[in-house]
Amino acid sequence: MSVVPTTGNGKVTVPDLLQRKSAADSQLPSNKIVCLTAYDYPTARLLDEAGVDVILVGDSLAMVALGHDSTLPVTLAEMLHHARAVRRGVRRALLVADMPFGSYHADTAESLRNAVRFIKEAGVEAVKVEGGERRLELIARLTEAEIPVMGHVGLTPQSVNALGGYRVQGKTTDSAEQLLRDARAVEAAGAFAVVLEAVPRELATQITRELRIPTIGIGAGPDCDGQILVANDMLGLTFEPSPKFARQYAKVGEIISKAVREYCDDVRNGNFPSDAESYHAGQVAKGRKLTPITG
Ligand code: KIV
Predict the structure, then answer these.
(1) Is the confidence at residue 57, as pLDDT, over 60?
(2) 195 lines ligand 1 (CB under 6 A)
């Protein structure tokens, strides 16, 4: 599957996203950057084919796909494994992967080596790191190594223990000023975009106006340059109540439950499989190779 950007092949690239922000019509809703998370091949392929611009292999993987109660436990190996699966399903969208907690918190050299693994082993086109001013040096180093970086400020879920919970950030004057400094630092360090998570709409609007790089909002109001949601939230494939900003577009969990209950009933009632769904002696299924039974 070729994902190499060539002029006019529709592939979304980092320069495209920067150019969209600088275009005179960047505030037109049709120019908004549409982002979603994905953790596996089929979902990634469906999202890509539906026209999503940026697909993020988020560390929300830990919670929505692996069943952990925070994003902290997911490992670099797990993130790489899922990023590789998503890569196979994505042709057009820009593919970004979250660096998991612990993979960029020691020294810069180790963080760089870990980021390189995402590029080399999983074929992602950019990495995302959480944190503002305190990530200045790291973002600058990754950018210098030709690894595009997406920043993430506001509510940063990997800081849950330090923050004491998942709360809206930037509500007081002091914390709003800190958030502004964080967003500016991410841009100054060379990031190509920044996620604003759970921040007041007014503050997100101000940051969006001030920065030259696109802002991608999640719980940050409609004025950001783009929006991102956790796919499982918007598809209705979670077990916990979703935050108020996560509009639900489908109830996929209910569809799966209903289908599986019907299947259970059919097997238990003798309605599955039917004779038409069975092979018969001397017959070879169309398009399928049957392995001869020997012995
Ligand atoms: O891990 C994730 O899914 C994220 C997005 C929600 C921004 O960081």
Answers:
(1) yes
(2) yes
Query: Which residue matches tokens 């399928």?
Result: 288
What number is the average pLDDT over the span 151-166?
96
For residue 273, the cross-strand partners are none
Whole-angstrom Cα distance, residue 108 to residue 88?
29
Q: Where are the alpha helices (DSSP H) in the chain?
A: 14-22, 41-49, 61-64, 76-89, 108-122, 136-144, 160-163, 173-189, 201-210, 231-235, 252-269
54, burial (CB in 10 Å: exposed 0-12, middle 13-18, buried 19+): buried
Residue 243 pLDDT greater than 70, yes or no: yes
127 lines ligand 1 (CB under 6 A): no
Q: Is 76 helix (H, G, I), strand (E, B) or coil?
A: helix
Q: What is the pLDDT of residue 27?
A: 76
Given a cut of 50, is residue 1 above it in pLDDT?
Answer: no
* pLDDT score of 186 more than 70: yes
Nearest protein CA to atom 2 of ligand 1, as residue: 58
29 CA to middle of ligand 1, Å?
A: 22
Tell me which residue of 69, 101, 71, 64 sits closest to 246, measured CA to CA: 64
Using the predicted structure, report yes or no on whether residue 148 has a pLDDT greater than 60: yes
Give the contacts of 150 (CB within 8 A, at least 6 positions apart).
56, 96, 126, 127, 128, 129, 191, 192, 193, 194, 195, 216
**197 is a catalytic site residue:** yes
